[in-house]
Design brief:
Elements lengths: L24 E6 L2 E6 L8 E11 L2 E10 L4 E6 L2 E10 L1 E5 L2 E7 L5 E8 L3 E6 L5 E9 L1 H8 L4 H7 L3 E8 L1 H11 L6 H21 L15 H16 L7 H7 L4 H12 L3 H20 L3 H8 L4 H12 L4 H6 L1
Antiparallel strand pairs: 1-2, 2-5, 3-4, 4-11, 5-10, 6-9, 6-11, 7-8, 7-10, 8-9, 9-12
Length: about 325
């Protein structure tokens, strides 16, 4: 458990030092790592914001960061074996897994650069940030037994990847994955088991997309009847929606882009992504508006235009329903 974090892993705003004066180097551990936090001034707070780690289920651990670095902090860790996915949806994360450096963060199209990391033996991890840096990250660790219970012998490629000594696979996460991570960073007011159930349900949705990037080893169950070429077309449609190039297109125009009929597009898209084309597009545009509010400090009216709303009031209602906060709160949180 991280110093200063509550035992149950409930969300909180951390404004206390993560090390005890006068030490500059503090050793600690939680369920997935043994680590040390290093900062210039041990008597001052290191982070302001949310930093927590919680076990959602046996073998499934969630770690969340939604915080500002107040000093310039280095985290050195020894990671325990497991399969990890990491997604940074705000700010940036400069991390190193056993000599593999990654820069994680949001993309201009509303998606984000994430990673799937396999560790089969204790491995060095380093995270470095500068004073004033913001990081908004969700990371999940899946133990080998969790993977076996969930998939048995059906996911041999995924299991084989998880047992490599060290392997890092880039994950070009969709806007939908970003929206899921946003929900995990700002969940509704729930207590105990309901809070963990809420987080676990979104963790599973993230895992489906992240594991699928390992080579199509885990197709969505509803899409199992589609041929590989049909799934690939729907992935291309998703990328088009995430890019913003389809914001002004009709369903027929999007269907022509995919070389299918509108009815086929709707049927196949729902099979792969679990929602209609325009439901996905609406969420993708909200995610881009959220990113613009956070990264570019645009006005609420400008964000409403990015999201496709002519009325800022209607945009604010949709934004609050999706993210649990008003658009104007995003800049204050950052």
């Amino acid at each position: 458990m991280k110093p200063g974090l509550p035992a149950r892993g409930a969300p909180f705003r951390h404004k206390a030092p993560l090390v005890d004066a006068p030490a500059l180097h503090r050793q600690a551990r939680h369920g997935t790592a043994q680590y040390a936090v290093v900062a210039p001034g041990a008597s001052r707070p290191m982070f302001e914001g949310l930093v927590d780690t919680v076990a959602l289920a046996d073998g499934l651990v969630l770690h969340r960061v939604d915080a500002r670095d107040l000093q310039g902090v280095a985290v050195h860790a020894t990671l325990r074996p497991g399969l990890r996915i990491a997604l940074t949806v705000g700010g940036k994360a400069d991390v190193d897994f056993g000599g593999h450096r990654l820069l994680l963060g949001p993309r201009p199209d509303g998606g984000a650069c994430g990673a799937v990391v396999a560790v089969s033996e204790p491995t060095a991890f380093v995270r470095q940030s500068r004073r004033g840096d913001i990081e908004r990250t969700v990371s999940l660790t899946f133990g080998d037994e969790w993977l076996r219970r969930r998939f048995g012998d059906e996911l041999q490629p995924c299991l084989a990847f998880s047992r490599r000594r060290l392997s890092v696979h880039p994950w070009n996460a969709s806007a939908q994955a970003v929206a899921l991570a946003e929900q995990m960073l700002a969940p509704p007011e729930l207590d105990g088991a309901l809070w963990r159930m809420y987080q676990e349900s979104r963790s599973l949705d993230l895992a489906v997309e992240a594991f699928a990037c390992l080579g199509g080893a885990i197709p969505a169950p509803a899409a199992a009847g589609l041929r590989r070429r049909e799934r690939a077309r729907m992935e291309q449609v998703r990328d088009l929606l995430d890019s913003g190039q389809a914001d002004q297109l009709t369903l027929d125009q999007i269907a022509r882009h995919a070389c299918v009929s509108a009815n086929t597009l709707q049927r196949h898209f729902r099979a792969v992504w679990g929602k209609t084309v325009f439901a996905y597009l609406r969420e993708a545009r909200l995610a881009r508006a959220r990113l613009a509010l956070e990264r570019d400090a645009v006005s609420v009216a400008q964000a409403a235009w990015i999201a496709g709303y002519s009325s800022p009031a209607n945009f604010a209602t949709a934004f609050r329903q999706r993210y649990g906060m008003a658009p104007g709160q995003v800049g204050r949180r950052a």
